[in-house]
Write a structure and sequence with these properties.
This protein has 153 residues and is α/β, with parallel strands linked by helices. Helix content is 29%, strand content 21%. Helix 1 packs parallel to helix 2. The longest helix is centred in the N-terminal third of the chain and has 11 residues. 28% of the residues are buried.
């Protein structure tokens, strides 16, 4: 039995209904981190891209205010938003649900406590113009010093 439910929320000012496949799908998975997710989405709202992109938000069975944050923030995003509920816990399950829901040619991940630079998607898109590139990763700069002991192994 799958623990997945999904709904799609598109921002009202986006697109003209021509169903163009986005170049990028940004997937953010979260579980019981409503405050971190809200800050992350405030930054995501300002991301630039030279091509169409969509946001895929995966709630991994949160019991805090995450669902409300997703609903509220999704309504004001400048890009289409796909909201997924994956009830089986685990980041792998959540990411796989995000991949399955994504429509983009390129699937991009960030975490709910990350704050990507405004040109992050532009730079990812540029890198993938190289047909030999299969994946890429980037530098992570910690914003919260308390995360250091759990982020460096």
């Amino acid at each position: 039995m799958s623990g997945r439910a999904s709904s799609t929320i598109s921002s009202p000012d986006v697109g003209d209904g021509d169903n163009v496949r986005p170049r990028l799908s940004l997937v953010i998975c979260t579980r019981n981190r409503a405050a971190q997710l809200a800050r992350c989405l405030d930054v995501v709202r300002n991301l630039r891209s030279e091509n169409d992109w969509e946001l895929v938000l995966v709630d991994n069975g949160s019991s805090d205010d995450t669902a409300n944050i997703i609903k509220t923030q999704s309504q004001s995003m400048p890009v289409p938003v796909i909201c997924i509920l994956e009830m089986v816990p685990g980041l792998g399950r959540a990411r796989n649900a995000g991949i399955k829901a994504a429509h983009g040619e390129i699937v991009v991940f960030t975490d709910d406590d990350c704050y990507p630079n405004e040109d992050w998607l532009v730079e990812i898109d540029k890198a993938f113009r190289d047909p030999g590139l299969g994946f890429l990763t980037g530098k992570v700069v910690l914003h919260d010093p308390d995360d250091y002991p759990i982020s460096v192994n």
